[in-house]
Write the structure tokens for this entry.
Amino acid sequence: MHFVFCPHCGSKLIDKEIGDEGKLPYCSQCEQPFWDMFSPSVICAVINEYNEIALLRQNYVSKDNYVCVAGMIKIGETAEETACREIKEELGLDVIDLSYINSYYLDNKQLLMSGYKANVIKKNFSLSREVDSAEWFPLSEALSHFREGGIAWQLVSSIIKCQKNMVNTDIGVRSTAKAIISYNNKILLNKCYDSNNGHYYSLPGGGQNKYENIYDAVKRECKEETGYDVTDIKFKGICEEICDNEDTKINYKQYAHKLYHIFTCTLASENVNQPTETDDMQISCEWVDRNKIENIRILPTMIQENIKKLIEDDKPIDMGSIHIPYNHG
Ligand SMILES: [Zn+2]
């Protein structure tokens, strides 16, 4: 917006040379220049954990194309607060993580738009009355739904380009080493309890540390959790669990996706130390008779189903991949 009259006193403005700015509208009464005005706003690419983007239809904007969440910055708000508020208002989703991408100028509406990528958890939408419909699309398909070259198109192009250039080593999978420790025809198990899963057993073991080889992880975890030194470590199988619980994905994301590497081993000696680290869900360590082990509840379920093969077969097995509603110890 270009000023013609002074917004304070109503005098007609004159053009005046103001330093490096060149000629600006100027009020001789108030002795004040006025810069042309534009409105600050945000535009957000709302992306879920499956790399899908939420696209909106607003029939008053376009009948053919989808749009991204966008809105004006209110007085007193930061651009980030506006982004979170608009996403909540338009889609009913909570932002977990917000990253600034770029700013864009929309000439015909005199808007300066700050562009963000907003990470959310996939949920059903709760739409505002301003939104006619919304859908999740794979991010890779998103560009075809926008007006080519438009601001949403530019924002999403930047995000796609950025993802392609990124070598994603941090997909958030926890590499876990679990041990079937045998001694005198008994197996050492952790007895566990939590309110979602009830009573169950689990194999000793835990997450691999950065740059720690997985065999060392087995030794360390067994020592920490059971107090025993183990030896004769053999790889026996692999399985994967992905926890669908939203609270886990947000607050315990390091435990939401686990790849279990299962090993058999024996005791290096009968000497036992006090365990130094135990899980919150762990009640005790228990030696269970080898012939009873197939009849007790072990989590992950894939380990229970395959426990005989894991112990007896030499060849490692693929136990598959499952989604679980709640995490366990
Ligand atoms: Zn004035």
In short: Residues 1-37 form one domain. The CA atoms of residues 55 and 328 lie 35 Å apart.
